[in-house]
Amino acid sequence: MLHNMNRSTKYRSRDVTHMQALTVKTSAMAVIALMGATDTSAAFRDVSEAFGFAGGSKAAFADYDGDGWVDVYAGGKLYRNDNGKRFIQVKDAGLSGGEGIWGDYDNDGRPDLFDYSGSGALYRNIGDGSFKQVKFDKLPTVNSRGAVWLDIDNDGRLDLYVGGYEVWQKAVHPDVIYRNTGDHKFVEHWRSADNARYSARGVTSGDFDEDGDTDVFVSNYRLQPNFLWRNDGRGKFQNAAKTHGAAGIPNQTITYTGGIRYPICGHTIGSAIGDLDDDGHLDIFVANFSHPPANQDRPEFLRNRGPKHDYKFEGRSVGAGLAWQESFASAALGDYDNDGDLDLYFTTVYAVGSGSIRNYPVLYRNDGGWKFTNVTADQGLAKLGPTYQAAWADIDNDGDLDLCTNGKLFLNEAPPRNWIKLVLEGDGKQVNRSAIGATVRLKIGERVITRHVETGTGEGNQNDITLHFGLGDLESDVTVEIAWPGKVAQRVTGLKVNRLHRIKFERSP
Asked: Within 10 Å of residue 487's Cβ, how many Cβ atoms?
């Protein structure tokens, strides 16, 4: 196993124009090796009992105590990672349960926790292993199922987008944005109008149009169109879902609670954003639950067509290999086999669906070219129970991604392949300290392996914000281009493989 935490690499930075300026010196054989077939031997082993973990519900990863080992908040419980050998529940940390996401809202270098469930709560990380609750308005979302941290106006402070769900056939609650004004204070910036409330489930984010600010994708339920909120960089959002092909596949129009009318699309629960075809642009996997009727959207791969097409999306589900299950739910993307492309883990919420058909969470290996193979049984994840929990992190610092799902921890023990990991740090003034909203690209041959710093995936989960790049058999140093929030570019050269690199933002002139 390779343990290379806390080893940084000196780097040279300068502004660059685009990925065309980025090169990696590597042999043709190395490129072929990276693109070659993936080892299919079983990867995952359930270590929940051995590691002392029993955290159901949603999962959010972060190194809250700064010791170099990623911790997890799951099922309203905080677990401290003890050197990758076990997880110790921290019962006196000052947290009162609920479902949460991590983000350093006060730019002190320590991740804080926002509980988006119920009335909501904000907890400041004090730095001694404990948290202090900070005054925060009661959430109008009432029973939110997902939220994200993001800097809506690029002022260096993290803001919040919180999705609002519903009470079946009685009320639909608003989505809401809170702006961080500094001094541990948040003010309501926007909420959805009474006649435009949709039943939000998962919320995820990323700079899909590459203009230097963070956009938001909201998974809406009840056959409602999804939202793709395009950020103008000043905290104003326009729903571009319909114009950009991300709302769903519309059918007949119906009326729902609150008088809203919409074309039937999908029961979307928990989607995920990531570059699925290694072309440098962020794609979307739309995580649709769907009953047997054909007018309900099935799960959908959406390819980002890039700047020549105004970053509009096209469907790539046909022929991708994704089999239908009725109760699909929460999605998380991660390169579990370290071959450079993002694989898909996708949960279900029913044990048994229509026609007494069993439903199980699935792991799909990305084979490139929008082809995916179900490797669930081969990789040791067969016949898991229904769950909304799905999040990736390297819990033992060996360079591959481990999985939290179904109230369990699965350690990835696949044969070793090369990798790098990046921890990005903003200056807390121009860029938030967590670097949320930053995108990193690594070019190898014609492939542009892309990762972005996000705080939400699926329905209310959070992958570790440490960026993980699988490199296959590539052994040479690599170069990356970082697109920081505010569209500041930084080129970093000479990164050694099989190491964690910490890179700080350098303010533009």
From this structure: 14
Neighbour tally for 81: CB within 10 Å? 25
* Residue 307 and residue 258 in contact, taking contact as beta carbons nearer than 8 Å: no
From the list 218, 323, 207, the residue with the least C-alpha distance to 274 is: 207
Could you give the CA distance from residue 57 to residue 388 in angstroms, rounded to a whole number? 7
pLDDT digits (tens, 9 = 90+) for 326-362: 999 999 999 999 999 999 999 999 999 999 999 999 9
Nearest to 123 by CA among 138, 139, 134, 109: 134
- Which letter, b or e, does each residue of 189-198 get, where b requires 16 or more Cβ atoms within 10 Å of its Cβ? bbbbeeeebb
Q: What is the pTM of this model?
A: 0.92
CA distances from 386 to 46, 223, 345, 346 (A): 16, 21, 13, 11
Rg (CA), the chain: 21
Token readout for 418 is 């090369």
Tokens 């070019």, located at residue: 443
∠ CA 203-206-208, nearest 5°, is 120
Q: Are 414 and 339 in contact (CB under 8 A)?
A: no
Long-range contacts of 308-314 (CB under 8 A, 24+ apart): 310/209, 310/244, 311/208, 311/209, 311/210, 311/244, 311/281, 312/243, 312/244, 312/245, 313/244, 313/245, 313/246, 313/283, 313/284, 314/245
DSSP string, 102-162: EE-TT-SSS-EEEE-STT-EEEEE-SSS-EEEE--PPPTTSS---EEEE-TTSSSS-EEEE
Helix H or strand E encompassing 32:
helix 28-35
In angstroms, the CA 241 to CA 107 distance is 32
Q: Mean of the pLDDT values across residues 27-41?
A: 45
Locus of tokens 């570790």: 464
**DSSP notation for 191-252:** E--GGG---EEEEEEE-TT-SSS-EEEEEE-TTPPPEEEEE-SSS-EEE-TTTTT-S----S
Provide the 8-state DSSP code for 18: S
Mean pLDDT across 108-134:
97
Mean pLDDT, the chain, integer: 92
pLDDT of 465-490, one tens digit each?
999 999 999 999 999 999 999 999 99
φ and ψ at residue 171, rounded to 5 degrees? -160, 150
| Cβ–Cβ < 8 Å for 234, 153 | yes
Cβ density class 86-105: b for 16+ within 10 Å, e for less:
ebeebeebbbeebbbbbbbb
Side-chain-side CA neighbours of residue 60 (13 Å): 29
Q: For the sheet containing 59-62, what is the strand order?
A: 59-62, 71-74, 77-82, 86-90
What does the alpha-carbon distance between residue 318 and residue 173 come to, in Å, rounded to a whole number?
Answer: 34
Using a 10 angstrom Cβ sphere, with 0-12 exposed, 13-18 middle and 19 or more buried, the burial of residue 184 is middle
The encoded tokens of residue 130 equal 């404990």
Q: What percent of the chain has pLDDT over 90?
A: 90
